[in-house]
Amino acid sequence: RSEIIRGANLPRQQSGNPPQGISSVALHGEPAQVARSAPLVAENIYESDRLVREYLLFHYGEPDEIFPWKTGPREALRFAQRCVRELINSSSVGRDARALDVGCAVGRSSFELAGHCREVIGLDSSAAFLAAAEKIRQEGALPYDYAVEGARTASATACLPRGIDAERVRFVPG
To answer: Cβ–Cβ contacts within 10 Å for residue 106, how many?
Structure first.
């Protein structure tokens, strides 16, 4: 968290530049100093291990892992698979069809598309998501831990869907 120090007598280096971690800011025409305890540029949450694990769970997890309660909107689960299965008319997709999955995340919809298309390109801006998708493509599975409650976790494995030719899929940054 940043903290503004007004009227503080902070030391300056010989060059007139503020010490490391401190930057000059003009407030109402008077120089002031801002002490930074954290960088001003926010971390990209889509590169975090936590979000990769959450996406793996929601894209590859079993219904009881994602939604362990007896009642609730279970029909909302398996969204990545349902998007492809419910929106593509297999009879209208030609043998040489190609697909571009923009925002492919951890690749589940890309793999589902490979069941209908000879080539699928999964595109995402997150290098961490693409690395997870590529690991599943190359090795057929990716073990991960997910949060159950608080600090309690459980283990699961994201697997390449059965019957999918992983060679039809490639993942690219963008």
So the answer is: 34
Q: How does pLDDT run across 103-118, given as a tens digit for each residue?
A: 999 999 999 999 999 9
User: What CA–CA distance (Å, rounded) separates 113 from 166?
Assistant: 11
pTM: predicted TM-score of the whole model, two decimal places: 0.74
Distance CA 126, CA 30 (A): 41
Residues 7 and 14: their CA atoms lie apart, in Å, by 20
Rounded distance between C-alpha atoms, residue 49 and residue 146, angstroms:
10
* Residue labelled with tokens 């309660």: 69
CB 34 within 8 A of CB 1: no
Q: Which of 146, 141, 131, 127 minimizes the C-alpha distance to 54?
A: 146
Question: Looking at per-residue confidence, does 31 or 158 come out higher?
Answer: 158
β-strand partners of 99 = 120
Helix axes 49-60, 127-139, angle to 10 degrees: 50
How would you classify the pairing of strands 98-102 and 119-124? parallel
173 vs 47: CA distance, rounded Å: 13
